[in-house]
Amino acid sequence: MEGRVRYRLTMRGIISWGTYLPFRRLDRTTIASVAGSGGGKGTRTVASYDEDTTTLGVEAARVALRDCPDAPPLSLWFATADPAYLDKTNAAAVHAALRLDSAVPAYDALGSIRSALGALRAALDSSSTSLVVTADRRGSLPGSPDESAGGDGASSVLIGDDAIDAPVLAEIVAWESLTEEFLDRWRTPGDPRSRQWEERFGETRYTDLGARAIAALLRSTGLTSDAIDHLIVVGPHDRANNAVAKKSGVASDRVVDALGAVVGNTGAAAPLLVLASVLERALPGQRILLLVLADGADAVLVRTTPAISQHKASRPVSEQISAGAPVAYGKYLAWRGLLPVEPPRRPE
């Protein structure tokens, strides 16, 4: 089913953003010697034993609020595919950690990668300043492709109307959404790993959905692919992401690196995380097409404003990537609860 809702907002968009990458990095080349399979090249980010998606999200949100102190949020949305709690609002813990006023409502959007887009869309529909926080911890069984390809991290954006003390840095110009139910990737509650149908099946469906979403967005805005300065394609299916990017008509040098080699696929956090990495180096007036392939396709057109030239992120993604330190694969397995180890010897 094709969603015909389009956003043509007058200077409503991103007035601040924040990201958080855990300090530890897992070298993928160390996996196979322990697990007997898996691994690969590059590194992935690893949340420490005491970090969950709530704490990751809080760190990203603090950056967004610190970089825009004159626009306190009047609502909060928290999105993740790996919530710390069920039957309890995880956003309430984020709300408490940020010391927001009790009159500020906090809501969860949980269970899938696309939840992040739902939270962003809700914030755009609001008439007040809204904080969107996304976080994920991606993993699977030892030696699996998902374990190696995944990554942990968080990202946040503050959405609001243009104001002198909190100018819009990136305007949301248009949004095209397609939804389609098909069996590609799923995880039942309590299962430590996602299950996936044949890769070629998902690739075929997502390639078509992505192409249709991009075409609809360009048609509704009267643009051509040459007008896109940066193309971001993210989602859990890397082969589909690459296929759509190649067929998009956007020049290959304008296709954004999704950080898979140094961070990994951060799931629900990936759309805003990769977008933040582009905004940190974007020039005024540039068009960014964000395409998210997850249970359909969402194509979002973002245009930077003159105000972005005066904005400096206090915790750039590039600096966080270069600041990481290694973690042993055995330690990673222990932190994930996949390798039982002797607990500290102390009285219970």
Spell out the blueprint of helices and strands.
Elements: E1 2-3, E2 12-20, E3 24-27, H1 32-35, E4 43-46, H2 53-66, E5 75-80, H3 90-97, E6 106-110, H4 115-125, E7 130-137, H5 145-149, E8 152-161, E9 170-179, E10 185-186, E11 195-196, H6 199-221, E12 230-234, H7 238-247, H8 270-279, E13 287-293, E14 296-304, H9 317-322, E15 325-326, H10 329-335
Protein architecture, described:
The protein has two domains: 11-168 and 314-335, Thiolase/Chalcone synthase (Peroxisomal Thiolase, Chain A, domain 1, 3-Layer(aba) Sandwich); 170-308, Peroxisomal Thiolase, Chain A, domain 1. It has helices at 32-35, 53-66, 90-97, 115-125, 145-149, 199-221, 238-247, 270-279, 317-322, 329-335, and strands at 2-3, 12-20, 24-27, 43-46, 75-80, 106-110, 130-137, 152-161, 170-179, 185-186, 195-196, 230-234, 287-293, 296-304, 325-326. Helix 6 (199-221) packs parallel to helix 7 (238-247). The protein is globular, with a radius of gyration of 19 Å. The protein is built from ten helices and 15 strands. With 348 residues, the chain is α/β, with parallel strands linked by helices. The strands form three sheets. Strands 1, 2, 5, 6, 7, 8, 9, 12, 13 and 14 form a ten-stranded mixed beta sheet that branches.
